Amino acid sequence: MKKPNVALIAKNVKSAAVKHSPEILTGIGIAGMVTTTVLAIRATPRALDLIARADDEKFDNGHGEHLTKFEVIKVAWKPYIPAAVTCVTSAACLIGASSVSAKRNAVLATAYKLSESALTEYREKVVETIGEKKEREVRDKISQDRVTNNPVSNNTVYITGTGDTLFLEPISKRYFEFDIERLRAIVNTLNERMYSDPFGDPISLSDFYDEINLKRTDISDDMGWHIDDGSIKVDFHPTICDDEHSPYYNKPCLAIYYVTPPKWGLSLIHI
């Protein structure tokens, strides 16, 4: 029988612990807070007993006075030591989890910005090399591939009540019906809002979804556009719905292309 590789097992356990450290620390912190409450409840009867005994002793010794607030604390604090230690440890775990998450998010934001810069440089060189017209043809083909590889029949088409042209939103990969002129007007409105905001607040992807009557996603609050990066620019690539199982078969579909891509982690990138 082959012996287990203890070193490899230990390495994998350590790696998993580091990877999931925010979740682990958060779990320990929450469990610790619950334990703190239980310990505090259990300590209270003993503390009350100590207070009662000390108070009677002071009164019976001829002082004729009851314990002061300071004396009550002095007498009753010891039973609460376990609860206090657990509370401090739990708070440290929660703070640690938050710190680890913040550092990881900062690293991701930096990596995202570097990738975005590289992509922008690449696109500029492609345009410079093959020309703007051919570069757009390439984007048209990419858009068509996205529609083909994401069949309409496998998705919900959201009827927004504004127009009947089929669109594909590339980040959430959702299909929806809308009016192209109304969509262009929305982009202009969002740009006006961004440039007129006295605090320079960004426009989130959620703001865009709200305007086109699509529900927000788990990441849409963390993505968007900032005034430092220029105006929000959106382009539309004509494609054909080639899904034979869809009622939109052979009908046009406009694939949205963000010329100015929404950035991830707005609050981290622009602090």
Report on the architecture of this protein.
This protein has 271 residues and is of the alpha/beta class. The protein has 2 domains: 6-105, no CATH class; 131-269, no CATH class. It is built from 8 helices and 8 strands; from the N terminus they run αααααβββαβαββββα. It has helices at residues 6-19, 21-63, 69-76, 81-130, 132-149, 180-196, 205-211, 266-269, and strands at residues 157-159, 165-169, 174-178, 203-204, 223-225, 234-240, 252-258, 263-264. A 5-stranded mixed β-sheet has the order 1-3-2-7-6, sandwiched between helices. It has a 3-stranded antiparallel β-sheet with strand order 4-5-8. A hairpin with a 4-residue loop joins strand 2 and strand 3. The longest helix has 50 residues, at 81-130. The relative contact order is 0.09.
What brief labels describe this structure?
elongated, three-stranded antiparallel beta sheet, five-stranded mixed beta sheet, 13% strand, 271 residues, 2 domains, 8 helices, alpha/beta
Mean pLDDT metric: 82
Structural class of the helices, strands and pairings?
Answer: alpha/beta
**Total beta-strand segments:** 8
Counting DSSP H or I runs of 4 or more residues, the number of helices is 8
What portion of the residues fall into strands of 2 or more residues?
5-15%
Radius of gyration: 31 Å
**How many angstroms separate the termini?**
57 Å
Low-confidence stretches: none
Range of helix content? 55-70%
Largest sheet: 5 strands, mixed
The overall number of domains is 2
Looking at how many chains there are and whether they match, the oligomeric state comes to: single chain
Shape: elongated
Q: Helix and strand string, N-terminal first? A: HHHHHEEEHEHEEEEH
> Which strand order do you get reading across the main beta sheet?
1-3-2-7-6
